[in-house]
Amino acid sequence: MTEATKQAPKDKFQEEFEALPLEEKVKKLLRLEAVTLTEAFNYGINESMKAADRLGDVLSDFGKKVETEFKKATQHAANTPCDPEEPQAAKPKGTSSKKAPKRGPKA
User: Fold this and answer.
1) Quick check: pTM over 0.85?
2) Would residue 104 count as lying in a domain?
3) What is the pLDDT along the chain (107 residues), one digit of tens a residue?
4) How far is CA 53 from the centre of its chain?
5) The CA-based dihedral angle spanning residues 24, 26, 28, 31, taken in that order and rounded to the nearest 10 degrees
6) Residue 89 lies in a domain
7) CA atoms within 13 A on the CB side of 106
8) Structure-derived torsion over alpha carbons of residues 88, 92, 94, 98, reported in degrees to the nearest 10
């Protein structure tokens, strides 16, 4: 295989670029770099805004769920009587009803 068949055919942009003088090449490269940076910056901003929108949607849905649960709980509380039966106090185990006699001072 010869050198010419190994190389892929050059596209029009590459041929035009190679024909430019060095100063023009640098100018063109800097313009391309500026365009690339602008596009990358815009992409980053747009994706951040999309993520913020998604977060807002999630928080909104969560707030709606909490609100409905709160309404259900307050509605249920309004339907229950105000004087619920008080539970009887449980007596501790192992104590007897007899009181121990008082001890006098030690001598």
Assistant:
1) no
2) no
3) 455 555 667 788 889 989 999 999 999 999 999 999 999 999 999 999 999 999 999 999 999 999 999 888 888 777 766 555 555 655 666 655 566 667 767 65
4) 11
5) -140
6) no
7) 0
8) -80
* Separation between Cα atoms, residue 83 and residue 35, nearest integer Å: 73
Looking at the structure of the chain, the number of domains it has is: 1
In-domain check, residue 71: yes
Residue 88 in domain:
no
Secondary structure (H, E, C), 40-107: HHHHHHHHHHHHHHHHHHHHHHHHHHHHHHHHHHHHHHHHCCCCCCCCCCCCCCCCCCCCCCCCCCCC
- CA distance linking residue 60 with residue 66, whole number of Å: 10
Q: Is 20 helix (H, G, I), strand (E, B) or coil?
A: coil
Instruction: Supply 30's token pair.
Output: 């800097």
